[in-house]
Amino acid sequence: MRVAFQFFAWFRNAPPYQKAILLAILIGFATMITFVLLEYQEDRFTSLYIYPDSYTHSQGRGNTSFLYGIRSYERDRTAYTLQFFVNDRLVGQKDFDLDPGKVIEERSAIDISNDSLPTKIQLVLSSGAGSYEVHYWILGTAPVAAFSAKPTQGKEPLTVTFYDNSTNSPSSWAWNFGDGTTSTLRNPVHTFTNGSYSVSLVASNSGGEGSERKTNFITVLPNVTISAVSQVSQVQRVLLRETLTVRDRQSILDIIALDYYRGPYANDLVAYSREVFSLENISNAEPEPGYEYLLVKVLVKDRQGTTPIFVAQASFRTCVKGTNRCSDAERAFITLPTFEDKVISLDDSSSGWMVFIVPVSEVIDLAYYDSSGLPAGYIQIR
Question: How far is CA 44 from the centre of its chain?
Answer without folding.
Answer: 55
